[in-house]
Amino acid sequence: MQNAIEHELAELGGRSACIVLGLKHTAPQELVSINPDMIFPAASLAKLSILVEVMRQVDLDILRWDTRYVVPTSARVPGSGALADLSPDLRPALSDLAHLMISISDNTAANLLLYLVGMDSVNTTMHQLGLTSTRLERRFMDFEARKSGRDNWTTAGDMALLLSYLCTDFFPGKEQILNMLLRQNDNTLLSVYWGEDVPFAHKTGGLQGIIHDAGILHPSHAPQVPLIVVVMTAEQADEALTRYTLARIGKIIYDGS
Fold it and tell me: Residue 91: helix, strand or coil by DSSP?
């Protein structure tokens, strides 16, 4: 599996990373490890970090899922999602914002949640969880911040570690987080060849030249052996080719599991 994926990524060019971990045993089994510590712009994978912090604050009774919020003009941004175009009278609940942020990668919902929990809180929690290369430095669609060098950063290794926590019993709210990730609407990357009936709790991310997909796969032919799968790419000139390559990598992983 490792050699086949290395070949696909080498043919693609640019920068790339891949991690596949099997969870059959008490400790994760490393099946593929390619550039696990290479730092990438996180794109919408940063929304997974925000979701974990939202869940932490709900668990501590700092926030409540049923609290409703006004969506201010300052939080409404273009790009993926629908909330920016909906009525200003709409008052979505915290749970609505979280579902929108994950299922359709809504940038406005993500910005409002980031404001509610605080960027520093997200970064502190990620550091405490051992995600030492994951850091948020800007809101979504803040391209002026990107031009100045501020971005949201992560690695395949950090994303795999965060997903591994969701496969343990002690992580607060893990079932709610997984249910949201299972409702991810973008299944045009790793999961293209798997079929809609194969559970894949995941989050995608994309910016110009950047395409990521990361999640927990439950192969139908091995339902008791979930896999953590992370593929990250950057400096890609051909988006269609990148998407096709991730689909091919997903097929390699599924067939080899």
Answer: coil
- Spatial neighbors of 215 by CB under 8 A, at least 6 apart, are 163, 181, 184, 190, 200, 201, 202, 203, 228, 229
Fold topology of 2-256? Beta-lactamase (3.40.710)
Residue 250 pLDDT greater than 90, yes or no: yes
Residue 8 to residue 224: CA distance in whole angstroms: 28
CB 36 within 8 A of CB 164: no
Structure letter (DSSP) for residue 151: -
Question: How much is the average pLDDT of 204-224?
Answer: 88
Domain ranges within the chain, ordered by starting residue: 2-256
Which residue type is seen at 6? E
> Angle CA(38)–CA(41)–CA(43) in degrees, nearest 5?
135
Across the chain, mean pLDDT equals 93
What is the three-class DSSP state of 223? Answer: coil
Q: Which residues contact 227 (CB under 8 A, 6 or more apart)?
A: 20, 21, 22, 23, 31, 216, 217, 218, 219, 253, 257
pLDDT of residue 81: 81
DSSP reduced 3-state for 221:
coil
Give the per-residue pLDDT at 166. Answer: 92
What pLDDT, on a 0 to 100 scale, did the predictor assign at position 172? Answer: 84
User: Which residues, listed in sequence order, are joined to residue 203 by a DSSP beta bridge?
Assistant: 214
How many helices (H) and strands (E) the chain has is answered by: 9, 7
Predicted pLDDT at 225: 76
